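Notes from the pairing session

We agreed to fold both candidates in a single pass and log them together. This is the raw record for the first candidate, unedited. Please don't reformat it; downstream parsing expects exactly this layout.

Candidate A
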Amino acid sequence: MAKGARKMNEVNDKELYAAVITKATECQSMGWVGATALRLASGEILTYCAPETKSNIVSIYMEVGVILAAHRTKKKVTHCISVAKKDNQSEFIIMSPSGICQERLAFWGGDVKVAISNPTNKLNFKTIKELMPNKWFEAVGE
């Protein structure tokens, strides 16, 4: 990758991170909060917070709301990042999408990039194909 393209990707990654942190901060009350941001091929960023529930049995993944919003746009998703923190005193941590959310994101192809959890909590994106190298679309095509 050319140096200029790499620099632009870093700027876009930081912009996506800032958007998800802003959304999560807007949604946080006194307890746990989680939020997801998606970048569309158009450059638009969609964000969503995990809804608070009184019972964990009715909670949904934080990615679901924004994935549904992305479907309504009929535009390709290129990037996904999720963050969470357990309380107001904690720092936000980057959360890799669960296996089922990786499946949901694979709708837009194996080249969708997702931020992954890591010990240093640095922005690190991998494609769905990298996370799931033996994914079913390898056998049937995207």
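Candidate B (folded immediately after A)
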Amino acid sequence: MLVKNNQDRKTSIIVQPLTQEKQRDEENFRDILLLLQNLLEREEKTVLMIIDSLYEIGSVHLINKKIASKPLNDLLKAIRRWPKPVFKIIALRWVKKNSPLAITKWLYAKVKP
């Protein structure tokens, strides 16, 4: 841990060694992060199925919410599947990149005193 010493005009940095408990916490945090990354890699099909379901639900609700005209609403519902493959690729990359850290931080916050 770095601590600034502001007693004199010169700013000096004092390095304090991390306690064993904090080191263990950081190691466990990294382990959880790696395990979640590994889980997402191994269960890619499951993640894709979740993304697919969320796309189906979200696209219908978004069209119903934003488009009041019945003919236009039906047309958009018919063509909403066209961008789905591109969405799935982008969403999968985003999930693999951002989810492990977000889940790890959330879990860590739940067990942290």
